[in-house]
Amino acid sequence: MRSAVARLIRSSSAETSRLSSSPVLLKTGNAFFSNATPSDPKNIEEPFKVEEAETVKVTPPSPDKLLVLGGSGFVGSHICKEALDSGFVVSSLNRSGKPSISESWADKVIWNQGNLLEPASFKDAMGDVSAVISCVGGFGSNSFMYKINGTANINAIRAAAEKGVKRFVYVSAADFGLVNYLLKGYYEGKRAAEAELLSKFTYGGVILRPGFIHGTRQVGSVKIPLGLVGAPMQMVLQNAKPLARLPVVGPLLTPPVSVTSVAKVAVRAATDPVFPPGIVDVHGIMRYSEQN
Fold it and tell me: Which of 31, 87, 106, 170 sees the fewest Cβ atoms within 10 Å?
């Protein structure tokens, strides 16, 4: 019995000696060491060396390039300024190229010469742009109004679609009921352009339908403060939305909207991929313009 106990003790001692000599790693701080005896330096594990990650310089993506059609006009000039202030590269298309605008923002715009009624003259301007904003429109005879408001914009929409432009924003106009009949060519042209846009840009086409647009308008060397009339009317009519449903006179009560609001929403619609496509009425324009 004593001999069996002695053998068991010797076996346990040998196992303990074997375990104590094996290189079990113990974590101490940020380094790992073996529990081997210091007398045997070969069994001492070297601490892991952690190399510092190299900083990689990533070149930021270039800002989106917007093409503003009619950028020298009342609405177009405010859209150009809004886009520039938001950090976008802005180009514009005019029949005469760079206009005679003395304001500093005009020097930052890339001006292209072209005629929307002659598609071959402006196709190059559609290249390398992520979005197009059209403010093209005009008044005159019915045939002239249809040509400027309809045909010119339809040509631009088709050219943009062929070039693979992602988004197209069209500044159209609200319905004014009886006024539509007095300006038949104007509204027929606008609606034809809208139909073309919704067909060619199902997921990236936005139509803004403001009513009277107020703000400071530059005519030659004279500045016309349209806001003196438009701003008070907007304050009154924007809260009278139910009246717009009245027959005949309802559309005439569409509230005015500031040109800065139209510009802000146009740029956002052209650059924000989650901005919903489709038609935005004057109340929608005011609502979106108040959002950050």
Answer: 87
DSSP 181-233: HHTHHHHHHHHHHHHHHHHH-TTTEEEEE-SSEESEEEETTEEEETHHHHHHH
Distance from C-alpha of 233 to C-alpha of 82, rounded to nearest angstrom: 24
Residue 186 CA to residue 141 CA, distance in Å, equals: 9
Closest residue by Cα to residue 99 from 125, 84, 116, 80: 80
- Position 78: which residue type? H
Q: Give yes or no for a contact between 94 and 111, defined as CB atoms under 8 angstroms apart.
A: yes
Q: Which residues have a Cβ under 8 Å from the Cβ of 55 and sit 6 or more positions away?
A: none
Residue type, 131: A
Report pLDDT for 47.
52
Amino acid identity for residue 287 in this structure: R
Q: pLDDT tens for residues 210-261? A: 988 887 555 555 555 444 443 444 444 455 555 555 454 445 557 788 999 9
CA nearest neighbour of 258 among 239, 233, 236: 233
- 280: β partners: 208
Q: Tokens for 210?
A: 């403001």
